[in-house]
Design a protein that fits this description.
Elements: H1 5-29, H2 36-61, H3 65-77, H4 85-99, H5 107-125, H6 131-134, H7 138-153, H8 155-168, H9 175-197
Helix pairs in contact: 1-2, 1-3, 2-3, 2-4, 3-4, 7-8
């Protein structure tokens, strides 16, 4: 059964409203003012104020739930009192700008994106992980062995493995690693086309 656009929007709005309620319960609890009436009223107001961000996420990423996740992130990391609807909306605009960019940037802000990327990588190291995700499957072992052999055969592959390890662990990249990252990104589409022309893929 196909879900209509209106049904999807209703589901997204419920999800956003629930996330807003959870945020308010946590924030207002610190002030001793987390009554159900206050939470319900404010949550409805906030949902309407930030709804356009969900539509933007859906339009650009096909996932309106990005906004709900951003609100959940704010709930965890905001440890102060309730600062009002305008603050809430401004905070979400910043988070969504990172996840689903709306504007351009200059050189300085581009550099800060690298800072955030390192911080995000570091945070991901502390994120809960299911034990099943840590299991080394036969396919993973085979791929790792193939990469190991390629790294031993070609120095640039070894350097790419080092680069991936540094990015994964949120380490500060060296100038040479930044150059290699750009070179690899440039080579990727050419490699895909060449593999197609050789009928490898």
């Amino acid at each position: 059964m196909t879900t209509s656009v209106d049904e999807n929007k209703a589901n997204w709005k419920r999800s956003i409203n629930y996330a807003c309620m959870h945020f308010l319960q946590e924030a207002l609890r610190r002030q001793g003012a987390a009554s159900n009436d206050i939470v319900d009223t404010l949550a409805a107001e906030l949902t309407e104020k930030v709804w356009h961000l969900a539509e933007w996420c859906q339009e650009q990423r096909g996932d309106a739930e990005i906004l709900s996740r951003a609100i959940s992130y704010l709930t965890i990391h905001h440890d102060g009192p309730w600062k009002g609807p305008d603050w809430f909306v401004d905070a979400l605009h910043i988070l969504i700008e990172i996840a689903v960019p709306m504007t351009g940037m200059d050189e300085t802000t581009a550099e800060f994106l690298m800072d955030m990327q390192r911080g995000i990588s570091q945070s991901q190291q502390n994120a809960p992980t299911y034990r099943a995700n840590l299991r080394v499957t036969d396919e993973v072992a085979s791929d790792a062995r193939m990469l190991q052999e390629a790294g031993c055969e070609y120095g640039i592959v070894s350097s790419l493995l080092d680069l991936n390890e540094a990015i994964f662990h949120g380490e500060v990249l060296t100038e040479n690693q930044h150059d290699l990252l750009l070179t690899a990104a440039t080579a990727a589409p050419f490699t895909r086309q060449e593999r197609l022309s050789r009928k490898i893929d």
